[in-house]
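User: Could you go from structure to sequence for me? I need the amino acid at each position, not a summary. Structure tokens:
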């Protein structure tokens, strides 16, 4: 079968302004571009002459072209920018460090405070930034606290308050200092210096020499902090200089910001792009992606290459990001502006060289860490895939876990996983039980792996001896505890012989230790009628493995779910294994049972086995998680040698079966790698816990109304603004947004 070749048909491309999207044969977006005339622009890619190497490479991969028409070239630029951020196509220039931008936020309250944040929110606060160096911002915060007396959002960070005046200031004076600080941070140093100089002279005339001396020191400090200028511009225009340096597919860009003629800030940003991207493409995408983050805009931006759509880009920046403040893009040819632009290129090259040295250093550390870790743990080979687990909660609420994955010593973010702990009672704190549940759920995934083997076997009842064991376990461990001694157990009950029922036994090394009866009467769901183990094998983990075998059996027989009528004492057990209450209506005795069930996924995700599992905790945590391996056997994975825990206090490594910890030196590359793993798992778990708490705090009463989803809830809130507004609305008004059934449910809930 020959591969179908893409054929370009110009007549299918509209002549409007808009965006074009190139897709490959796997459905991945290759490139997004914009054009004033889509047909002309797209056709140019398929001309046999004047093609750049990048275009030649990209055209060979195109399998589908999609176009989106808009009204103007400016609208096309806006759409292009949004599509690039959403899809991150391979052949476009993409910002790598957009999550690392930092801002100083001055809060909008009676007593404004300062904090360092990572994103701008329209909350009335003043934002100054972005910065790409946390160290620089910490120095700025220190300066602001020391010389303006500004307070921090977190009181524990108020290190330098009152050093300017030496005493507690009034609210009026404090707000005045905040205003001075804002002007200073935005580049108006002349105004601040004059104000301090005038006040210093006043103190001197009043013979307050100590206060005057403090202001003199302040003035000298400000002079020192602003005097390191390579160039000053007498015209006092706010302007930025943008230049870059390439290193393969990595593009390092630098923005040098001049305000009122003086150098005020420098941003370093890393982009990813194909080596064959043209310089103009790099500049265009930087302007479109970076200036969305900026809060203090220039009137001029100096760039190293001319843009074919310069006027459209100027309008795009002016209208989209700059709030109507007109900006001009200029390619300087001579003079100081050309020199500063060259200086920006030097800074970009230095950034690339630093990144290369850091990468080489990190690679060297990794090359040392993995063999060193293998030697310390007596592993046959350095561990390529390491998984680390951590638990997070806030006073027992929203208990979650994280799994982070490092491959060859480097984080593999795409393999990270988050878990909600399902089996703990509300507000209960039990990290041991939480970790045991999460590890069990993680290794259940290996059942999709053909290497998974269970010591426990499930098979049909075949002989009289099987029937004897089946009835003995069923009567003593299920029937008597459930019905008591007054009821007669009938071994010849007709249900056991019905064709729809399938009595099964669980064997461990040929010994029958458990039973189950599976009901095939439904075409879509498998019903468990009997399920239990003999007393000596209860609470050993075999029950979970048995459920896994039942679920595998259900999938093999094309059932979509497993359901049962759970006894109240077993509800927690089933919940722990992913079964939900009220999954079906049930058909058992309601005073004794809880209908539960689980939807089965026909195509289970195949998880790769780790070479090493790291648990955040000590000996107790490690002993707890080892319980899950009591009844499963995974070929190629030995928990006795491939599971360890790392205790926080002394940084000790514990292994199963050994009370003596392994202690590595604090400068050990192996220990540093384990610490980095643990810290990353901790960060990932905390972020998940925080996000759940945020969602719960913003939970609406509408979330509990049956039949009303997110879109309908949004429409209701947009129409009636508040819950009270919805509650007081007339039925006829509500029916314009929701249907009668939803209205009934809404009135019942509210």
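Assistant: Here is the amino acid at each position, in order:
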């Amino acid at each position: 079968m020959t591969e179908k070749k893409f054929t370009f048909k110009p007549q299918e491309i509209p002549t409007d302004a808009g965006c074009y999207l190139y897709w490959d044969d796997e459905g991945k977006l290759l490139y997004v571009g914009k054009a004033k005339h889509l047909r002309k622009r797209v056709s140019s890619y398929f001309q046999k002459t004047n093609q750049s190497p990048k275009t030649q490479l990209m055209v060979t991969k195109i399998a589908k072209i999609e176009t989106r028409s808009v009204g103007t070239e400016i609208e096309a630029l806006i759409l292009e920018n949004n599509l690039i951020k959403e899809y991150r196509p391979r052949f476009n220039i993409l910002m790598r460090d957009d999550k690392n931008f930092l801002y100083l936020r001055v809060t909008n309250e009676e007593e404004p405070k300062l904090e360092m944040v990572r994103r701008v929110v329209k909350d009335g606060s003043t934002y100054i930034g972005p910065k790409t160096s946390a160290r620089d911002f910490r120095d700025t915060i220190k300066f602001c606290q020391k010389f303006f007396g500004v307070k921090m959002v977190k009181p524990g960070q108020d290190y330098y308050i009152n050093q300017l005046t030496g005493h507690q200031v009034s609210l009026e004076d404090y707000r005045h200092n905040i205003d001075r600080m804002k002007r200073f941070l935005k580049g108006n140093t002349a105004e601040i210096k004059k104000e301090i100089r005038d006040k210093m002279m006043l103190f001197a005339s009043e013979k307050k020499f100590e206060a005057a001396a403090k202001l003199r020191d302040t003035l000298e400090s400000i002079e020192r902090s602003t005097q390191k200028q390579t160039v000053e511009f007498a015209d006092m225009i706010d302007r930025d200089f943008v230049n870059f340096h390439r290193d393969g597919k990595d593009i390092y860009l630098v923005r040098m910001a001049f305000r009122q003629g003086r150098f005020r800030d420098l941003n370093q940003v890393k982009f990813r792009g194909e080596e064959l991207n043209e310089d103009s493409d790099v500049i265009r995408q930087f302007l479109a992606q970076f200036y969305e983050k900026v809060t203090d805009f220039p009137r001029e931006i100096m760039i190293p290459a001319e843009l074919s759509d310069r006027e459209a880009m100027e309008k795009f920046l002016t209208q989209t990001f700059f709030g109507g403040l007109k900006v001009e893009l200029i390619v300087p040819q001579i003079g100081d502006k050309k020199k500063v632009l060259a200086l920006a290129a030097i800074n970009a090259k230095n950034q690339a060289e630093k990144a290369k040295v850091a990468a080489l250093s990190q690679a060297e550390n990794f090359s040392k860490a993995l063999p060193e870790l293998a030697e310390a743990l007596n592993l046959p080979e350095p561990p390529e895939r390491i998984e680390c687990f951590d638990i997070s909660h806030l006073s027992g609420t929203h208990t979650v876990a994280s799994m982070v994955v490092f491959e060859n010593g480097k984080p593999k973010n795409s393999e990270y996983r988050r878990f909600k702990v399902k089996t703990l009672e509300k507000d209960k704190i039990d990290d041991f039980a939480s970790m045991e549940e999460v590890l069990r759920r993680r290794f259940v995934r290996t059942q999709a792996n053909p290497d998974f083997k269970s010591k426990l076997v499930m098979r049909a009842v075949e002989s009289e001896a099987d029937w004897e064991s089946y009835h003995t376990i069923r009567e003593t461990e299920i029937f008597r505890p459930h019905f008591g001694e007054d009821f007669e157990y009938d071994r010849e009950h007709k249900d056991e012989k019905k064709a729809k029922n399938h009595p099964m036994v669980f064997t461990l090394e040929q010994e029958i230790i458990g039973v189950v009866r599976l009901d095939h009467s439904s075409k879509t769901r498998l019903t468990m009628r009997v399920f239990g183990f003999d007393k000596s094998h209860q609470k050993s983990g075999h029950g979970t493995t048995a459920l896994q075998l039942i679920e595998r059996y259900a999938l093999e027989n094309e059932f979509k779910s497993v359901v049962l009528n759970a006894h109240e004492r077993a509800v927690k057990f089933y919940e722990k294994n992913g079964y939900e209450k009220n999954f079906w209506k049930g058909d058992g005795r309601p005073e004794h049972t809880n209908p539960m069930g689980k939807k089965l996924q026909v195509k289970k995700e195949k998880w790769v086995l780790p070479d090493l599992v790291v648990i955040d905790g000590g000996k107790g945590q490690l002993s707890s998680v080892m319980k899950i391996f009591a009844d499963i056997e995974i070929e190629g994975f030995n928990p006795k040698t491939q599971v360890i825990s790392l205790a926080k206090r002394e940084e000790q490594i514990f292994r199963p079966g050994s009370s003596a910890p392994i202690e590595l030196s604090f400068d050990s590359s192996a220990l540093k790698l384990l610490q980095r793993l643990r810290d990353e798992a901790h960060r990932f778990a905390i972020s998940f816990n925080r996000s759940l708490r945020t969602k719960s705090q913003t939970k609406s009463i509408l979330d509990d109304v049956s039949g009303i989803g997110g879109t309908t809830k949004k429409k209701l809130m947009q129409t009636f603004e508040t819950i009270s507004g919805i509650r007081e609305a007339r039925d006829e008004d509500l029916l314009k947004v929701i249907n009668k059934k939803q209205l009934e449910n809404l009135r019942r809930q509210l």
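One structural detail worth keeping in mind: The chain has a mean pLDDT of 82.
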